[in-house]
Design brief:
Elements: E1 5-11, H1 15-29, E2 33-35, E3 44-49, H2 56-73, E4 78-83, H3 84-89, H4 91-96, E5 102-104, H5 112-120, E6 125-127, E7 150-154, E8 156-157, H6 168-172, E9 176-177, H7 180-192, E10 197-201, H8 218-226, E11 233-237, H9 246-254, E12 261-263, H10 271-277, H11 283-296, E13 301-308, H12 315-328, E14 332-337, H13 355-379, E15 384-392, E16 399-403, E17 408-411, E18 421-429, E19 434-438
Parallel strand pairs: 1-2, 1-3, 3-4, 4-5, 5-6, 7-10, 10-11, 12-13, 13-14, 17-19
Antiparallel strand pairs: 8-9, 15-16, 15-18, 16-17, 18-19
Helix pairs in contact: 8-9, 9-11, 12-13
C-alpha cells in the first residue's frame, strides 16, 4: 500500500490567512497529502506568511532557516512559501533561499497543486500574479479541514482604502466580492458537516458588494445567512468604521443569531493622526458609531486595533488615544508600534520619535487596556451568558467555548455538548478568560 504523503503547514497573521490555510489543506488532500504537526515527518512544508508587521520578510527568512538542515538530510523534502510575504518577495525568495521549492502569492492558491506536483518532479516555481476578476473565487476550493464547530467563510478579498500605513492593498489587491448565492451555498455545506458558528470574512466587510449592482449589501447578506437553519451563531470581521452603515448597526438589534461582538479598529484617538493615516473619520465620528452600536445592542463587546508611534504622533495625540480607549471600554485590543511597510504612503513620512518613547507609549497603553479588560471580565461575574462549546480546553480538563461577546470561557460538562449553545453563569472573571458553570 502506498504511504500517504505528509503536509506540515504553519500559518502567520490574520484570519484571512487562517482561511487560506484551510483551503490549502483541502487542495493538498486532493493530491494525496495529510496534515502532520511534526515538521520532521513532513514530505511538504508550507509557510503561509503575513507582512503586516515590521521586518516580516527577515523573520520569514529566519524562520525558513530552521528547515534548511531538514532539507539537507532529506533532499526530497519540498518547502514552499505562500501568503503576503510571498506576494511581496516573489522570485527574490527563491534566489535568497535556494532550498525553497515554490513561492505562491495571495491570488494563486488555485495553482498550488500543479506547483507541488512540479516540485515533486524537481522543478522550482514562483506564482504571484494578481487575478482581479470575480472568476478567481471559483478557483478556490471550499474549506479543507473537516469537522470543527466554527469556520470562516470569505465574502470578499482585498481593500480599496489605502490607509497610509497598510500594505494589504499591495499584497491582497483591490476589493472584490463573491456573489451572495455562492456564500450562502458554502455556509449551507458547512452546516451540513456539523459547523454551527460562521464568521463572514473580508478585509472590509462593510463595503461588501459595493461594486456589484444587484447583489445584497452586507446587512442583507447577514440576514440571508442567518436564515439558514444550521447556523446557530453568526459573526463577521473586519469592519472599517467609515463604512459602518446604520442598516448594519440595526442588524445587531434585529438578528438574534448575530453575536454581540464587533471588531472595529480605530488605530488612533487623535484626529490629526487619523487624517495622516487616511482613515476617513474623526474620533468623534468613530465614537458616534460606537454609541449607535451600544444603543442597538447594549451587551455588545468591542475589540479593536491601535497603532502607537505613527510618524508625527505627539504626546497630546497619544493621550487622545488613551482617552478613546477609556471611552469605548474595549473588551480586548491589539496594539502595535508603527512600522514602515514598503510601498505605503506612511513609509515616506519623516519619523522623528525616539524608539524608546514609542515603546514606553505602547507599554502605557497596554497597561491601561489590561486594566480595562480585567474590569470588563470581572463585571460579567454573576451574569448569564450563552456559550458555544467548541470542545475540550487545552488542558483537557474541562470544556472550552466562547460567549456571544467573544470571551473565552471554561466550564465543566460533557464533551457531547460540542457545537451546542448552552446557558452558563459566570463565576469568575480572569485576565484572559471567564470561568462558568452550566445552568
Amino acid at each position: 500500500m502506498e504511504m500517504q504523503k505528509k503536509l506540515y503547514l504553519e500559518t502567520f497573521g490574520c484570519q484571512m490567512n487562517v482561511s487560506d490555510s484551510e483551503k490549502i489543506v483541502g487542495l493538498m488532500q486532493g493530491i494525496g497529502y495529510v496534515e502532520t504537526k511534526d515538521s520532521t515527518q513532513a514530505d511538504l512544508i508550507l509557510l503561509n506568511t503575513c507582512s503586516i508587521r515590521a521586518k516580516a520578510e527577515q523573520k520569514v527568512y529566519g524562520h525558513l532557516g530552521k528547515f534548511k538542515s531538514l532539507k539537507e538530510s532529506r533532499p526530497g523534502l519540498i518547502i514552499g512559501v505562500g501568503g503576503c510575504v510571498a506576494q511581496q518577495e516573489g522570485e527574490k525568495l527563491l534566489k535568497r533561499a535556494p532550498f525553497v521549492n515554490l513561492v505562491f502569492g495571495t491570488h494563486n492558491l488555485h495553482q498550488l497543486q500543479d506547483m507541488v506536483r512540479g516540485a515533486e518532479a524537481g522543478r522550482r516555481s514562483s506564482a504571484t500574479d494578481f487575478i482581479d476578476d470575480e472568476a478567481r473565487f471559483d478557483l478556490f476550493l471550499p474549506q479543507g479541514r473537516e469537522g470543527g464547530v466554527s469556520r470562516f467563510v470569505t465574502v470578499m478579498q482585498g481593500c480599496d482604502n489605502f490607509c497610509a500605513y497598510c500594505i494589504v492593498p499591495h499584497v491582497r489587491g483591490r476589493e472584490i466580492s463573491r456573489s451572495a448565492a455562492k456564500i450562502v451555498d458554502e455556509v449551507r455545506q458547512l452546516t451540513a458537516s456539523g459547523v454551527t458558528e460562521v464568521t463572514l470574512l473580508g478585509q472590509n466587510v462593510n463595503s461588501y458588494a459595493a461594486k456589484n449592482p444587484g447583489e445584497p449589501d452586507f446587512a442583507d447578506l447577514l440576514r440571508l445567512v442567518a436564515e439558514l437553519d444550521g447556523v446557530k451563531r453568526l459573526r463577521f470581521t473586519t469592519s472599517h468604521p467609515k463604512d459602518m452603515s446604520q442598516r448594519l448597526i440595526d442588524c445587531f438589534a434585529e438578528i438574534p443569531k448575530l453575536a454581540p461582538h464587533i471588531h472595529l479598529p480605530a488605530q488612533s484617538g487623535s484626529d490629526r493622526v487619523l487624517k495622516a493615516m487616511n482613515r476617513g473619520y474623526t474620533a468623534e465620528q468613530y465614537l458616534a458609531k460606537v454609541t449607535a452600536l451600544k444603543k442597538a445592542c447594549p451587551q455588545i463587546q468591542f475589540t479593536g486595533d491601535m497603532i502607537v508611534g505613527f510618524p508625527g504622533e505627539t504626546e497630546e495625540d497619544f493621550l487622545a488615544t488613551l482617552d478613546l480607549i477609556q471611552e469605548v471600554q474595549y473588551a480586548d485590543l491589539f496594539s502595535f508600534i508603527y512600522s514602515a511597510r514598503p510601498g505605503t504612503a506612511a513609509a515616506m513620512l519623516p519619523d522623528l520619535t525616539d524608539p524608546a518613547e514609542k515603546q514606553a507609549r505602547l507599554e502605557r497603553l497596554q497597561v491601561l487596556q489590561k486594566k480595562v479588560t480585567l474590569e470588563r471580565n470581572q463585571s460579567l461575574v454573576g451574569t448569564v451568558q450563552q456559550v458555544l462549546v467548541e470542545g475540550l480546553s487545552s488542558s483537557g480538563e474541562c470544556l472550552f467555548g466562547r460567549t456571544g461577546g467573544n470571551r473565552a470561557t471554561l466550564l465543566a460538562g460533557d464533551l457531547a455538548l460540542s457545537g451546542q449553545l448552552v446557558e452558563v453563569k459566570v463565576v469568575e472573571g480572569l485576565q484572559t478568560l471567564l470561568k462558568a458553570e452550566l445552568l
